[in-house]
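Assess this one:
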Amino acid sequence: MRTKKYPWLKQRLPSGTEHENVKDLLNSLRLHTVCQEAQCPNLWECFSKKTATFMIMGSRCTRNCGFCAVSQGPSGPPDPNEPDRVAEAVHNLRLNYAVITSVTRDDFPDGGASLFARTVKAIRRKTPDVRIEVLIPDFQGSKNALKAVVDSRPDVLNHNVETVPRLYDTVRPGAVYRRSIDLLKQAKTCDPNIITKSGIMLGLGESLKEINETLLDLLGTGCKLLTLGQYLQPSAAHLPVARYVPPEEFDRRREAALEMGFTEVASGPFVRSSYQAQKLYGAVSI
C-alpha cells in the first residue's frame, strides 16, 4: 500500500498498556476480533480504549472477497461455548456498547444465525444493560436466519453493502447486491423498530452517481445509520486501490448523506463498520 503521498493516511499510535491488556484478555478467552483478522487501521486506538469488535464462528471465511484480509477456507464446526466467552469478555472489559460480527459461514445450515442469537442472549445475561450491535453476513438470503437474529433483540442490526452494484462481481464474489438490500428491508419487516445500519468503502472505482444511487437504495430499506471509509489494500494479492479519497471529500459525502435523509453518518479515511458505533447509535436512540 503506497500511502506516502497521502499524509492523512498516517496515524499516531496511542501510548499506554491497555492495548496489550485487551490482547491478553482476548487470547486468554480464545476469541477473535475483526480488528485483528481484517487488519483494521483503528486496532491500536480501539484496543487502547478497551473496546473491540468480536468476530464469532472462527477466523476463516467461506467466501473470498477481493478487498478483505480475513483468511479464506474451511474452519471447522462452531464452538458451542464461544457465546459465553464473548459475554465474559464484554463483562470484563466493562463495555456498555458491544459489537459482534462474524466470518461468513455458508457451510452452516443457517449461516450462523443461531450463533449470533446465542451470543446476544449470553451477553445480556452477563451484562443486562449493555447495548449490542450485530454486523451480520447475508445468510444467503434466508429470512428465517435473519428473523432468528432479529428476535434475539440486538439494539442495532448492521449489514454492509460494501460497494456499488457494478463492482460486486469483482469486490464481493459470492454476494448479491439486491440480496443485501432485501436483507436490510426484511429486518424492518421482522421488527419495524430495529435500528439498521450499513457501510460502503470508497476508492474501488465507484462513481459519485453510483454512490448516490446506492445511498438511496439504503434509505429505501429504512436504514438510518451509515459508515463511509477508504478502501486500503491489505496485500498485493488483494484488489488495488483505484483512488485515495481526501478527508474533505469524506466530509462532503457525510453532509450529502445527511441531507439525503440518514440520521447519522461516520465518514473518513479510517472509518470502518464499527467505528464510533456507540456515537452513531446515540443519534437515533434519543
User: Anything to note?
Assistant: The mean pLDDT is 88.
